[in-house]
Design a protein that fits this description.
Number of domains: 1
Radius of gyration: 14 Å
Order of helices and strands: HEHEHHEEHHH
Strand content: 5-15%
Largest sheet: 4 strands, mixed
Number of strands: 4
């Protein structure tokens, strides 16, 4: 059984404190019956990842959102996971999904990912090679 086809999923690096705190914060704003799931990438087997075209290298570099066969990474994954939330987080996710904001997010996300060990909750385990 492929856990990524059951419902929308945000996959994050559970070895990184900053990533974990960020992902759990988003998860805390999800509600309802069709609620997405949060999964640490380290818990997924290689066959499941390969079936969705996701590599371990990608998961080390960015969060990934899987929904109805679509796979988005980085800033687009974060925006989609926020759109799945309720209240002001949903609205913010919609705003950062708009064309100009999405482009800005795609520029900023790699910088944040590279420096995630320096972000709140970050540790040396968060460093990217």
């Amino acid at each position: 059984m492929d856990v990524l086809t059951d419902r929308a999923t945000l996959i994050y690096d559970m070895d990184c404190g900053f990533c974990t705190r960020s992902a759990k914060w988003i998860e805390g704003h999800w509600s309802g019956g069709a609620r997405p799931q949060l999964v640490g990438g380290q818990l997924l087997d290689d066959a499941t990842l390969a079936a969705h075209g996701i590599t371990r290298e990608r998961l080390a570099a960015e969060a990934v959102w899987v929904e109805r066969g679509s796979v988005r990474g980085g800033a687009d994954a974060i925006a989609a996971s926020m759109v799945a939330a309720t209240g002001w987080v949903h609205v913010l996710g919609g705003l950062i999904s708009l064309p100009g904001m999405a482009q800005l997010g795609r520029l900023v996300y790699p910088y944040v990912a590279k420096h995630r060990h320096q972000m709140p909750g970050g540790t040396d385990a968060c460093k990217l090679d």
